[in-house]
Amino acid sequence: MSVVKKYVAYLLSFFSGLQLSFAQSTIIPVETLHNALVLQVNAEKDVTIIYFGRRLSDRAEYDKIPSQLKQIGDYTGLLNSIYTPSGSRNLVEPAITVTHADGNNSLDLRYISHTLSKIDNDVSLLAVLLKDPVYNFEVTLYFKSYYQSDVMEQWSMIRHTEKANVMLQKYASANLYLKAGSYWLNQYHGDWAKEMQPEISKLTHGIKTLDSKLGTRANLFQPSVFMISLDKSSSEDEGSVLFGALEWSGNFRVDLEVDNLENLRIIAGVNNYASPYTLQPNESFTTPAFLYTFSDKGKGDASRKFHRWARDYKLLDGKGSRLTLLNNWESTYFDFNETKLAALLKDTKKLGVDLFLLDDGWFANKYPRNGDHAGLGDWQENKNKLPNGISSLVKQAQNEGVKFGIWIEPEMVNPKSELYEKHPDWVIKQTKRDEYYFRNQLVLDLSNPLVQDFVYKVVDSLFIKNAGIAYIKWDCNAVIYNAYSAHLTNQSHFYIEYVRGLYKVLAKIRAKYPKVPMMLCSGGGGRVDYAALQYFTEFWPSDNTDPLERIFMQWEYSYFYPAITSSNHVTDWGKQPIKFRTDVAMMGKLGFDIVVSKLSGNDLLYCQQAIALYNDIKQVIWQGDQYRLSDPRENSVASVLYVNQEKTRGVVFNYLVNNRYDQGSKSPLLLKGLDPVKKYSVKEINLYPGTTSSLT
Ligand code: DGJ
User: Fold this and answer.
1) What is the secondary structure of 125-150 as a DSSP string?
2) Which atom of ligand 1 is nearest the CA belonging to 540?
3) Hey, which of 475, 522, 539 would you mutate to test ligand 1's pocket, going by the most ligand atoms within 8 Å of its Cβ?
4) Among residues 249, 288, 285, which one has the least CA distance to residue 268?
5) For residues 163-191, b (16+ Cβ closer than 10 Å) or e, as one string?
6) Whole-model pTM?
7) What is the pLDDT of residues 1-13, one digit of tens each?
8) Residues 104 and 132: beta-carbon distance below 8 Å
9) Ordered DSSP codes for 51-77
10) For residue range 416-472, what is the model confidence (pLDDT) as tens digits?
């Protein structure tokens, strides 16, 4: 009882009028190490959420929840539905809306059965089957819980055996229900070179929607990741906070509705914008997973839960290693040839990184890729720039003792290309309307199996013809305008089939090349999500590599994605010295995109020493726990600590982010995440040649 009282702020139970029939209710708790989501099946077989938050120590107390908090005013009995149907009793934002085979728009979903299976010691799967009492229409809700990391993946599978097709108008992945005095949304917005800008607001009654309708690089203006703090905006180490994210690389939609009982309804899934889905009898529609975790110890704890889960379960090769590299994009752009590249391969070795990454501009002959106006889609080596082909570059790299990686953007096409000339019907466009371009290019129709095969072969042929390619940078620079597929008969399936087609290609690539590192790039950081990160080892957060800007961006990305996923390159953006730039890039997966030959003797020496040092500490950064010590948005100092799992080694990165008079840390930065019983020695590392540490 006392425990129940303690967490009463998060207790939920709703009664419509006098329908109180606990005796016949079934309680289904889904517990992880610290949290619980508790479902109730009432006498009418409605399945509702009666509790979400910190796990109670006595499981039996969940049964008592419904009698602890009575909120009158839910006229429907469905405000806390586990998957709110529309067209019957419901009056609020639905999770699912359908038009049945007979044209009727009503849906009711009642409990039929549930199964709880243990996948292993850490992972469990709850499946709850719901059916409409009137129509042969069912939904199975899945809750995959990861015990140690307190993470949940939730999705649904929709099916029917009606006499004809059913139209799914809305088909969310998950529907949550939170209880607090107020709800504080931390959302993100952005644009090219301005990704992951946070914005905090108090949610008011009504619906706030986070969404994307861009089709590809769907995160350009807004990613699906968000935080909800309960009662007050959470800090790094305090507050109750939910982190959410949709595992989907296309259009998404997250509805956040504060209802008339002051509770927060969260409905997350694929965006139904222009996408009513026709479901045939016996066909199943499986939604992507909505991913979430909850912490009552602030944002830092929630982020470490996501990181652990990602490395253990989701991210491709999450426990593996990564390659440091030298990229040529900013040092040459499209202007290179074999002689220049030979010098860059030598520079790669001289610098001491693992790999040389050849960027855009190496392909196309009829319309050479000498700028971003032409050539995209024609993936043959440009004979003028590379008369001896990629294979000779791979060999040269091997001779230099470095690996070789290559840039591609296989989902895209320039109208000025042979690919476009040969296969205009492979291109997404409205044939009766003017073409409209994003970076002078269009998107290929990945809903078409022929295009899927083409894109797969772009990658496969590179590997076959050039054995030894050790890294791929997969770019995606355009959004989808004029959405139309010449292949699909049903255009309203287009946005979904595009993403499914993309995943089919990526799955096929990974079946043949399971671990070759691939960077997910999207004209900067327009694409990352956890569905894509099953196929990619890392992502490109932004084309903006000004280290000052990167401190802020990497800070925000790091709430959701572990450091090992973040490709950070040292470039010539920004005014800071090479040491500052390199330190910032070391907070993830280090790379360089600079003209090595123009570095001063000391700058080069510094970089070489920094790379050697990075090789020594990178495991702590990639696999350690991340603690944010000083927030650059609140202080003039940014400070981040990574501590290894054994708590024997840690690395702290500190930056002054405000150069105004008398800025700095006013009091000592307190370290976190260390073992109080252990004794640690502190040493300043990564010093610039000729300088000495101020720590004695
Ligand atoms: C956009 C990427 O973000 C850059 O790093 C670079 O690869 C260019 N595309 C090449 O066109």
Assistant:
1) EEEEEEE-SSSSEEEEEEEEEETTTT
2) 3
3) 475
4) 288
5) eebbbbbbbbbbbbbbbbeebbbbbbebe
6) 0.96
7) 333 333 333 333 3
8) no
9) EEEEPPSSGGGGGGHHHH--EE--SSS
10) 999 999 999 999 999 999 999 999 999 999 999 999 999 999 999 999 999 999 999
